[in-house]
Write a structure and sequence with these properties.
The protein is mainly alpha-helical and 242 residues long. 82% of the residues lie in helices and 0% in strands. The chain contains seven helices and no strands. It starts with a helix and ends with a helix. Keywords: Coiled coil, Membrane, Transmembrane, Transmembrane helix.
């Protein structure tokens, strides 16, 4: 193509037609500019398509992350429910003067368990690295930011306080009233009869039940409910874009 233009210019010059040459030169420049603009536009289209593909891939990955989070939170709720069940069984045993037995040792152990919420944040971190501008739907973008920076942040903060309380209890309660405390399995009281009449330990059990109930409520409200809502928003966006 360049050879063709060069030959055409030379022919016009040989003819000595200056006006025609100027018009031709302007036309040639115009064609070059148009070609550059088309190339730039194609490049922009390619970059836009790459961004869109990356956005959709990360949204799909975020859906899977949220589903994994929901399973983790549901497992944690199960821990709290079992802990409360064991606390109530022990309180009932104390009240009804049930003798010490191996089954109660397991319930003493269940109360010591506190699960750790492990958020799956690979997609969210990738979106942050690329920039939130990657998410074109402003409503969806706001929902993502709110879920991870507000709901999960609060839930993780509560979870951390629960673990701090667990370790404080390990020093304050279990080292004082139990022979062995290893976080799992059976936990054997130093003196079961004295423990059954100990108001401090009964208060601990009742407070533990209340704390667990709050944890369950937070998991359901701040975690599971909002995660499911966000999954639905992402699904709607993916369907709209396909």
């Amino acid at each position: 193509m360049i050879k063709f233009f060069r030959k055409t210019r030379q022919n016009i010059l040989n003819e000595g037609k200056t006006t025609k040459y100027v018009k031709y030169a302007i036309g040639e420049i115009f064609l070059v500019v148009i070609g550059i603009l088309i190339a730039l536009q194609i490049n922009n289209w390619n970059e836009t398509r790459k961004e869109q593909n990356l956005e959709l891939a990360l949204l799909q990955e975020m859906q899977e992350n949220l589903k994994a989070d929901i399973l983790d939170m549901e497992d944690n709720i199960g821990f709290h429910e079992r802990s409360n069940e064991s606390a109530n069984i022990i309180l009932s045993a104390f009240k009804n003067k049930i003798p010490e037995n191996d089954t109660l040792y397991k319930h003493f152990g269940n109360i010591t368990l506190a699960p750790k919420f492990l958020v799956t944040m690979t997609a969210y971190n990738s979106i942050n690295m690329e920039g939130m501008r990657l998410i074109k739907n402003d409503s969806l973008k706001n929902a993502i930011v709110s879920h991870y920076q507000r709901n999960y942040a609060y839930l993780l903060s509560w979870n951390d306080s629960e673990w701090d309380m667990l370790f404080n209890d390990q020093q304050d309660v279990f080292r004082k009233y139990f022979k062995e405390y290893n976080y799992v399995g059976e936990v054997i009281p130093e003196n079961y009869e004295e423990l059954s009449n100990n108001s401090y330990y009964r208060n601990y059990l009742n407070n533990r039940i209340g704390f667990n109930k709050t944890s369950i409520r937070y998991y359901k409200a701040f975690g599971i409910k909002n995660a499911r809502s966000l999954i639905k928003l992402i699904e709607e966006e993916l369907q709209h874009r396909n």
